[in-house]
Amino acid sequence: MSKITLDYSKTGLQAHELDCLEKQVSLAHEMLHEKTGAGNDFLGWIDLPVDYDHEEFDRIKKAAEKNINAVVGNILSSDTFYCADKTANEKWISMGILAVEMEAAALYMNAAEAGKKALCLLTISDCPLTGESLSAEERQNSFTQMMEIALEIAK
Predict the structure, then answer these.
(1) Could you tell me whether strands 132-133 and 97-101 are parallel, antiparallel, or unpaired per DSSP bridges?
(2) Are the CB atoms for 45 and 109 separated by under 8 Å?
(3) Catalytic residue at 126?
(4) Dmax over Cα atoms in the chain, in whole Å?
(5) SS3 3
(6) Of 31, 122, 34, nearest in space to 76 by CA
(7) Using 50, 70 and 90 to split pLDDT, how confident is the model at 96?
């Protein structure tokens, strides 16, 4: 498991203030994982990174290998692609985030609530993390590959 290191030096908080919050943070963490706090009926997402259909995932990887060089990894679901904090992208990259998109989190949470499977297949056209982007022609001609993968695994 990866370890996240947080830098609080620019928060204006003193070390003793952070220490005072430790019990509250531990309690919140416990309530999240035990699903005991207010709003606990909306915590289906908590197990999503580890609770997935491994057989389906293997079919996806196999289908992708036939068509394209697929990349499997972490994404950030956010409605903010570009922000004023010029160091934000570096932080996301250091956490293993490969791309930013807007709908996957909602897809997975709705599926978890409904007790259904969900899958997010992405074709990345513009990546603010790296500054890379596809031309209009590349978007027009390459996005069909993701659709072919989706149709193959849906069989």
Answers:
(1) unpaired
(2) yes
(3) yes
(4) 58
(5) coil
(6) 122
(7) confident
